[in-house]
Amino acid sequence: MWNVLLSFSGLVALIQLLFLPFFPESPPYLLLQKEDKAGCLKAMKQLWGEGNYHTEFDDLMKEKAVTKGMKIMNVLEVLRERSVYPQLCTMLLLLLSLQLCGLKIFRTANLQESIIPYVSLGVSISELISIIFCSSIIDRFGRRMLLCGGYLLMALILVLLETSLLLSDQFLWLRYCSVILIFLFIFAYGIGP
């Protein structure tokens, strides 16, 4: 019944994709990244209803003042920063644990047992690449676009994956398409959600 579980996550992603355009950008993002004070206040009112949000707005302005002199670091600068090593180690351990996920899908696709560990390692590598790629483009495109694009890609990939797994007994080449689709699903998840 793993395919039902996989379909459920696709349904949740589709629901989020449908409702995401109706929500405003994050107020901190609008103020700190876009420097849009009016948009920030408008987003606060839309998210929290009518009210006085001067305290929250002032807190954001203080945060903006504190971070104004700070340089936004790129991925390589973050990797060189010793203070983030514990978080980085935790993230790497989680990525390495991804090797154990998807084994059932690979067996369902009738892949040879000898190549399944290598395919699982490929899944972890694609997750790592997507995280690095996302962290380098998130400031340029914003969270909303990455979330919408990621959920849309995930929904499309899940439909194609389910189809390829159902037809993999009739067309042997679809087994390898399933592996590629899993890599693409992980990549889409890492970029967006």
UniProtKB/TrEMBL annotation:
The annotated topology with respect to the bilayer is:
Multi-pass membrane protein
Supply the Gene3D superfamilies for this chain: MFS general substrate transporter like domains (1.20.1250.20)
Q: Which UniProt keywords apply?
A: Membrane, Signal, Transmembrane, Transmembrane helix
List where the protein spans the membrane. 115-138, 144-161, 173-192
Cellular component, GO annotation: plasma membrane
Which molecular-function annotations from GO does this UniProt entry contain? D-glucose transmembrane transporter activity
The parts of the chain that form a coiled coil are: none
Mind telling me which InterPro entries this protein's record contains?
Answer: GLUT (IPR045263), MFS_dom (IPR020846), MFS_sugar_transport-like (IPR005828), MFS_trans_sf (IPR036259)
- In the UniProt record, the signal sequence range is 1-17
Major facilitator superfamily (MFS) profile domain: residues covered: 1-193
Q: Which domain of life is it from?
A: Eukaryota
Its annotated compartments are: Membrane
Q: Which Pfam families match?
A: Sugar_tr
Question: GO biological process: what's one of them?
Answer: dehydroascorbic acid transport
- Main localization of the protein described in the UniProt heading: membrane
Tell me the protein's name: GTR9 protein
Organism (species): Dryoscopus gambensis
